[in-house]
Amino acid sequence: MTLDDFSHADEWGPEKIVTVADTRTGMRGVLVIDNTARGMGKGGTRMSPTLTITEVARLARVMTWKWAGVDLFFGGAKAGVRFDPASADKEAALRSFVRSLSSEVPEEYVFGLDMGLTEHDAAIIQHELGDRRTAVGSPRELGGVPYDQWGVTGYGVAEATDEAARWHGLKINGARVVVQGFGAVGAATAERLHSLGAQVVAVSTSEGAIYDPDGLDVPELLHAKSEWGDGLVHHVGGVKHLSTGEELTLPAEVLIPAARQDVVDAATARRLSASVVAEGANLPLTVEAQAVLAERGVTVVPDFIANAGGVVAAAYAMDARHSAFPSEPSQIRTAVSERLRANTVNVLDESARTELTTHEAARRLAEQRVRTAMELSGRTQPTRVSVRH
Ligand SMILES: NC(=O)c1ccc[n+]([C@@H]2O[C@H](COP(=O)([O-])OP(=O)(O)OC[C@H]3O[C@@H](n4cnc5c(N)ncnc54)[C@H](O)[C@@H]3O)[C@@H](O)[C@H]2O)c1
Fold first, then answer.
1. Domain shared by 159 and 270, yes or no
2. 42 is in an annotated binding site
3. What are the pLDDT digits (tens) for 254-277?
4. Rg of the Cα trace of the chain?
5. Which UniProt keyword terms apply here (predicted)?
6. In this structure, is residue 382 part of a structural domain?
7. Considering the chain, what is the average pLDDT of its residues?
């Protein structure tokens, strides 16, 4: 065993790593608090049989940038349990895990949802620790904010897209849109863009793509998704069927990659017809593709700006833990819309001003915000000193 290695640490963090284990249930878990310069560490809680400490540390760092990018006052953190969520002993392992972290929760960390955990698990955590403040993501019946069910992330992607289109000089009303991936994010994005007047001409799932240059019937697609899931592409009539991936380069003004990472490489980026791309998925454009699109004048909204609706909703859920009033989806959507629209314009303006790609500009803004907070709180030496006379 080698534990005396700080190679994972850099100027930003992590500030604290707590590992826990329980021989009886076989549970092993970790909490990583990355950087709290802008507020307490907040990020979801993952359960996976292959979980590693490095994975959780990386995700905690992503949260540091996400919170700063969206300009909300939380820091980066993430927790994880190495356990199979399909096991019959899941609840015992989860209860043991959260009990082991009771000194840190809820003052330093609040549990949330990520892969392997459900709303029901959030309720179990609150019960185990006897405190509603210990987790977000619990069911509405318990005063929680089930923002995943409310399609908040996709709603935010659509709002960011609308704002980016306006910035680009394109009207979303009547614009042709291709949505890759028709899951939680893609479907909610398509629904909101449709309500803003966009024409969704193609959607895809892992089972194939469908295309209608005159616009697909979005309510019909949503209904088909509820019936057949990803198989919806086989059940919609009057459309052209394509293989997955072909939809990316169809004639359209807007592209929403909302499926998985690395789907657009430099070669595909050269063939895109869209002039506005909003990343619903995490990392769908390779770094080379980002450069090609920047060079071609395509307006790109980076993932951690476009898909930050869930993060805004999580902040809302943190506040809701202290309230007796039930949360309303409309309030959260309004908060998501305001924040994401403002952030989108901020990043696009910054990218235009600095000639950085929008990804670089977004990252730089986030880093600047964290660095400033670290300097102001005396965690680091200020890079410049201003003296008040
Ligand atoms: N759910 C959220 O709140 C959220 C928040 C931020 C980021 N994301 C990211 O968004 C992406 C999608 O998440 P989701 O929650 O919608 O997942 P999901 O599992 O609900 O849906 C994924 C969809 O993509 C489709 N798909 C998979 N591979 C494909 C391919 N090669 N081509 C076309 N379609 C393909 C699937 O069939 C499915 O329709 C992921 O990258 C996720 O990390 C999700």
1. yes
2. yes
3. 999 999 989 999 999 999 999 999
4. 22
5. NAD, Nucleotide-binding, Oxidoreductase
6. no
7. 94
Q: Output the residue whose Cα is nearest ligand 1's atom 21.
A: 183
Active site residue 78: yes
Same domain, 119 and 262: no
Tell me the CA distances in angstroms from 9 to 15, 57, 209, 343, 345, one per residue in order: 9, 10, 43, 29, 33
Check the annotation: does 240 bind a ligand: no
Q: What is the pLDDT of residues 170-221, one digit of tens each?
A: 999 999 999 999 999 999 999 999 999 999 999 999 999 999 999 999 999 9
Please give the Cα distance from 263 to 260 (Å, whole number).
7
Please give the distance, rounded to the nearest whole angstrom, from the Cα atom of residue 34 to the centre of ligand 1: 26
- State yes or no: pLDDT of 389 exceeds 70: no
Q: Look up the CATH number of the domain holding residue 99.
A: 3.40.50.10860
State yes or no: pLDDT of 384 exceeds 60: no
d(CA 302, CA 306): 6
The range of the structural domain enclosing residue 159 comes to 152-306
Q: Which two tokens stand for residue 139?
A: 């069911």
CA 86, 88, 92, 93 torsion-angle sign: negative
Residue 125 counted as domain residue: yes
Q: Is there an atom of ligand 1 within 6 Å of 185 CB?
A: yes
Q: Last residue of some domain: 88, 122, 142?
A: 142
Which of 119, 206, 249 to mutate to test ligand 1, by most ligand atoms within 8 A of the CB atom? Answer: 206
Q: Are 269 and 289 in contact (CB under 8 A)?
A: yes
Are 156 and 224 in the same domain? yes
Of 157, 185, 203, best ligand 1 pocket probe by most atoms within 8 Å of the beta carbon: 185
Dist. CA 354–CA 346, nearest whole Å: 12
130 and 239: one domain?
Answer: no
By mean pLDDT, which of 78-87, 322-331, 337-346 is the weakest? 322-331
DSSP state of 107: T
Ligand 1 atom 8 nearest Cα: 281
236: pLDDT strictly greater than 90 = yes
Looking up residue 255, the CATH number of its domain turns out to be: 3.40.50.720
Choose the catalytic residue: 16, 78, 225, 240.
78
Q: How many angstroms separate the alpha carbon of residue 148 from the centre of ligand 1? A: 13
